[in-house]
Amino acid sequence: MKNKKLLVTGSTGYIGGTFSYEALKSGYEVIGIDNFSNSKKATKQILDNFINFTFYEIDISKNLKKVNEIISKTKPDVIIHFAGLKSVSESEKNQNLYWQNNILSTLNILESIKNNNISLIFSSSATVYGDKNESPIPEEAKFSTNSAYGSTKLAQELLISDYSRAYDISCISLRYFNPVGTHADKLIIEDIMSSPNNLMPRILRVAKKIDEKISIYGNRYPTKDGTGERDYIHISDLVNGHFAALKKINGMDNHNFFNLGTGKKTSVLELIRTFENVNDIKIKFDYKSEREGDVAICYADPSLAKKELDWTATKTINEMCVDAWKGVKDGD
């Protein structure tokens, strides 16, 4: 197995934890790093069941020396860099935190691998495209971020490009659209308890009767029903995109970029209605003003990932809604 030893930052988060779990099941050796600022220790307990899992609790944005020590000791083949703060609305209120955390974490990783022949797969975001008048959005679309979060993602990509060019590091940035759902084993789920900003966990909170209703931010966008339109992708498809990148990264030079999305747009209202229909649950909602930094329409052109990575999203919106609910309905 090529690239059999992986260092995964953010290894106990929703996406990083799901990837780590699937990697461990597939026989990869995983060295996990997290500081639990945006994840749960329960996920680490799941991963600890695998003998091929090692874990370090550190904040990679604040401890370059420790990052260097871990990488020198473990000698991973590839680093999968999930760690980072990710809320659009929070980033607008606390820009200093986002710039320091997201940029320094990536800088410290790059400094630690620049002369070690280690490849990097980076969790980027469709927010680097901002609010585009034309969709679907290809990788070569002009950048136009609408939030500090999006700007930090773009800055991280530029940083990776510079290091990749200067130190001949093979790098892939995967630009996520909107991950939802729960993977097949229903063990690692998106956190719905800590004031989530993403749509699906807010729907799940209403379904679980934690909240009375969901607020839809904006119903006057230039879309088919006035609510924002997004490209929602099942977590399993997203994780498979990382394994596809792992298989191809050794044959790629410098820094390559790929959209991970379905190429289909679904409005906020459509997602709520679909969730209601497939799970037979009524979700109450109201409308509020648009949030600063949000965009009207954003969906992917995923054709490059299909061509270069042999990857395509396969899960439907119905499956995303069913699996999201199955993941949380029997929990506390």
Describe the structure.
The structure is a single chain. The protein has helices spanning about 15-25, 40-45, 65-75, 90-95, 95-115, 150-165, 200-205, 235-250, 270-280, 305-310, 315-330; strands spanning about 5-10, 30-35, 55, 80, 120-125, 170-175, 180, 215, 230, 230-235, 255-260, 265, 285-290, 295-300. Helices cover about 40% and strands about 20% of the residues. It has a seven-stranded parallel sheet with strand order 3-2-1-4-5-6-11, sandwiched between helices. Helix 1 (about 15-25) runs parallel beside helix 2 (about 40-45). It is built from eleven helices and 14 strands. Strand 1 (about 5-10), helix 1 and strand 2 (about 30-35) form a beta-alpha-beta unit. It is of the alpha/beta class and about 325 residues long. It starts with a strand and ends with a helix. The model has no long low-confidence stretch (mean pLDDT about 95).
**Percent range for helical residues?**
25-40%
Class by alpha and beta content: alpha/beta
Number of helices: 11
Strand order of the largest sheet: 3-2-1-4-5-6-11
**Average pLDDT taken over every residue:** 93
β-sheet strand percentage: 15-25%
- Give the total of beta strands: 14
What order do the helices and strands follow? EHEHEHEHHEHEEHEEEHEEHEEHH
